[in-house]
Amino acid sequence: MKRRIPKTCERCQQAFICGLFGCWCGAMPVTDEQYTSIVEQFHECLCPACLAELTGATLPPDVLKLSAPHTDP
After folding, report:
1. Contact (Cβ atoms closer than 8 angstroms) between residue 63 and residue 10
2. Rounded to whole angstroms, what are the CA distances from 14 to 17, 45, 48, 67?
3. 36 by DSSP, 3-state: which?
4. Which residues are CB-neighbours of 9 under 8 A, at least 6 positions away?
5. Phi and psi (nearest 5°) for 44?
6. pTM score
7. Residue 17 and residue 9: Cα distance in Å, rounded?
8. C-alpha dihedral sign at 36, 37, 42, 47
9. Quick check: 34 and 54 in contact, CB under 8 A?
């Protein structure tokens, strides 16, 4: 069973889904330096667009699908 937690991006207020330990954010390339900078600025999760912008990363194709705030049965 995959858990999907609805969240709101602290930076832009966009709704998205957190996948907890199997989350889409694990596929995002974030250096240790970038991670340190992000956690110093924000206390909650960021949406894919904000995380990509802050890291200069290109979103992997499946990230937007995995993070979309739709409901599954």
Report:
1. no
2. 10, 11, 10, 11
3. helix
4. 15, 16, 44, 45, 46, 47, 50
5. -120, 175
6. 0.79
7. 10
8. negative
9. yes
pLDDT at 13: 96
What pLDDT digit, counting tens, does each position of 7-52 carry? 999 999 999 988 887 788 888 889 999 999 999 999 999 999 999 9
Query: In terms of Cα–Cα distance, which of 12, 21, 27, 10 is closest to 65?
Result: 27
Amino acid at 57: A
Q: Which residues pair with 17 in a beta bridge?
A: 6
Q: Which structure tokens are listed for 32?
A: 């240790």
SS3 (DSSP) at 16 = strand
Q: How many residues does the structure list for the chain?
A: 73
CB 25 within 8 A of CB 62: no
